[in-house]
Design brief:
By secondary structure, the protein is mainly alpha-helical. The protein has 17 helices and 12 strands. The longest helix is centred in the first third of the chain and has 34 residues. It is elongated and about 105 Å long. The relative contact order is 0.06.
């Protein structure tokens, strides 16, 4: 295809040979595949007003490669408003035979454009099947033009991973995370700080754990994941909670949502009076005689509850020693777990292969195929995560016990009244169904905390 400059040069030579008077030259930047081009519409309007009687173009496909614009040209010829069409590469006369050939030229142009589009889409899908990303790499990755693959950005990949890790802590909103990324100096491709939309887009993009989504279908990418599937899922759960509407409060009340009213079962709300925070029943079910309780008193009761399950240092050291012995004795059990995960991975891959065969044979329709394929691919990522965790530590099933012992040992620190949010979070780990009655916080213990409480 000649450049626009070369086309204009050839058209001017053709006008000189044909002794045509050029009223005005038009250069359309938009593709002729889709109707609604402003410059083309302007040309048609001026011809309808009688400002010109003909069009000189390089080829009919420069005028239209869609049925709507092609039909407008043919209709203007039929009505006599467009008396002449000239092309250096195509012959046309305003006769029934000439209009027939013009229609064929427009149809051929549309057919070529449709085939080209389909070939490009097919090539894109094939790249995805090979695990190659066919588009511009997301933030945190770079397009390697030499190797024709996506590679991790040595500067930004770690910051994108840090975004997921920070949000997974549960202490950030999208807005606060956006401000945090600005303090890190993380910017988009334009060099500007990330906006709210970009932060949310990054946190919800499965590409970062290896699952590519293209044209409504899922593919397993061969690029290096920035985050694990487990971390990505934790972030998605937090995002769902953040999306729930909430009431903006003038004062922060850390113990809201912690307990119910023992008398009527309503939620406990709070209010600020004379420099102190008071918690009381919402009374949404009618009159309730439960009295107010000050935040300082509620904090003291929560602190006492936490201290009651604190594990002394001497006991903690003995239990950790026993834990270490059990850890050593349990190493051989991990071999069976790894083999089981490997077998499940092979079984899932077999299901994917059979699903594809069923789809190709027409047994499974496209929508069912795409949904089941996404489910099985995500299952593969989950199994891969298990294998990775098992390879890193042969005693992963003992880790919750160690975390429990450490949490019990550190309970005394969590009981401090300086950090009320920390108090509330730790109490939720040990207290079950807490209720307020006569300014007293009552609850039962979560297992295994009841072992220490007894």
């Amino acid at each position: 295809m000649l450049s626009i400059e070369a086309q204009l040069f050839e058209l001017r030579l053709a006008a000189e040979r044909e002794r045509l008077t050029i009223v005005q030259e038009f250069v359309e930047a938009r593709t002729a595949k889709i109707p609604g081009r402003p410059i083309f519409d302007d040309v048609i309007s001026r011809i309808e007003r009688g400002e010109a009687q003909g069009i000189l173009a390089w080829h009919p496909d420069r005028l239209a490669r869609n049925s709507v614009d092609g039909g407008r040209i043919v209709y203007l010829v039929d009505t006599g408003r467009l008396q002449s069409l000239k092309f250096p590469t195509f012959w046309f006369e305003n006769t029934p035979q000439g209009k027939f050939m013009l229609n064929i030229a427009f149809a051929q142009s549309k057919h070529f454009s449709d085939n080209l589009s389909e070939n490009v889409k097919r090539g894109m899908r094939q790249k995805c099947r090979r695990g190659e990303w066919p588009d511009r790499a997301p933030l945190g990755y770079l397009n390697d033009k030499i190797g024709r693959k996506v590679v991790a950005d040595p500067l930004k990949a770690a910051l994108v991973r840090r975004m997921f890790e920070e949000f997974a802590k549960g202490s950030h909103t999208i807005e606060s995370l956006k401000r945090l990324t600005r303090s890190w100096g993380l910017t988009g491709r334009s060099g500007k700080p990330l906006v709210t939309f970009m932060v949310h887009k990054i946190l919800t993009d499965s590409f970062y754990y290896g699952l590519m989504k293209w044209a409504g279908e899922c593919f397993r990418g061969n690029h290096e994941p920035i985050v694990s599937k487990e971390l990505f899922d934790r972030v998605q759960q937090l995002l769902k909670r953040r999306m729930k509407p909430h009431q903006v409060r003038k004062h922060l009340f850390p113990f809201l949502g912690l307990a119910k009213c023992a008398n009527c079962g309503c939620s406990i709300t709070a209010q600020r009076q004379k420099g102190h925070s008071y918690y009381h029943c919402t009374k949404k079910r009618g009159h309730c005689g439960e009295p107010y309780v000050r935040e300082e008193e509620l904090s003291r009761q929560i602190s006492d509850a936490i201290e009651s399950v604190a594990l002394p240092t001497e006991s903690f050291e003995k239990m950790i020693a026993e834990w270490a012995k059990e850890r050593e004795a349990s190493r051989h059990q991990m071999v069976d777990l790894k083999q089981k995960a490997a077998d499940e991975l092979a079984n899932t891959q077999g299901k994917l292969d059979r699903l594809l065969d069923a789809h190709l044979n027409g047994v499974v329709n496209t929508s069912e195929y795409l949904a089941k394929k996404e489910f099985l691919l995500n299952r593969k990522f989950e199994i891969d995560g298990k294998l990775t965790q098992l390879n890193r530590s042969t005693i992963s099933w003992l880790e919750p016990l160690k975390e429990f012992l450490e949490a019990a040992h550190q309970a005394g620190q969590s009981a401090t009244r300086e950090n009320l949010e920390a108090q509330k979070d730790f109490f939720r780990r040990i207290g079950l169904n807490p209720v307020l009655k006569s300014r007293k916080l009552s609850y039962s213990y979560h297992l295994p905390w009841s072992i220490l409480a007894d």
